[in-house]
Design brief:
299 residues, mainly beta, Neuraminidase, 4-stranded antiparallel β-sheet, disordered C terminus, TolB family protein, WD40, 6-blade_b-propeller_TolB-like
Amino acid sequence: MPRSLRPFQISQLRVIDITSGVDTMVYQSDSMLFEAPNWTPDGTALVFNGDGRLFQFDVELQHLAEVDLENLDPINNDHVISPDGRYAFVSSDDGHIYRIDLEGSESRFRVSNDHGPNFRYYLHGISPDGKTLAYTGMTISGGELQTNVYLIPANGGPDTQITNDVYPDDGPEFSHDGEWLYFNSERGSDVPGAAQLFVMRPDGSELQQLTFDERVNWFPHPDPTGRRLSYVSFPPGTLGHPADTEVIVRLRENDGTVRDLATVFGGQGTMNVASWNPDGTQLAYVAYPIVNDTSEVLS
């Protein structure tokens, strides 16, 4: 079920320059809760979901257009754009991943396989060559929910399970060269609500933990240069990645230093998927402030 805005809440699509710190609102809506922006590879537009649909926003022309999903079930905030800009890959509420031709010349194509009603696909990453998708596979067995990291060919094919454990694993994304997979996991603690960031080879080897602080860190997004990654940091003890929470959009450099880019009333939907511009100088995210009748923004 697509999310909706609370009373007096708005969705703000924002772009922050990571060098100057200038944070610009480029689009907002008081009627649609939209989420999870992806930049197109040419840097001209941002693609995001809202009301179960997919939209493309031309930043220069300030023009919003809906992408034809061919009557697909509502989609969620797990979607990526192919490196050539031709396709959007989306996660549908029916539990599957679909390829959508942004040029409109091909019919939609279901990438994922049918593993029954107790398995769902949540897409997060695409390899630099566009051949492989990284996703979170959610399974329910004996009443227990488990999430692990998987890969699947972008043109369809067999799934490859990378992690296989009881720890919640989520948000897998490829590095700029395809040599690594970044993800968040609770494997660093026995206490729920302790997600940190990790990296491993695409075959699951050479696992390393990247963050060790008291906050709950989700959705690592490596930049196109290979020098840093952005992520969403929740308050200590947060279970999962809830909406309507004050979070910090953070930047981690390869030397391990961390700095805050923005404090945001958001969480779920703010930055679930890759949102770097092509040269790695700007980051897109969504804020969800509450605005009273005098237009004062409340967080």
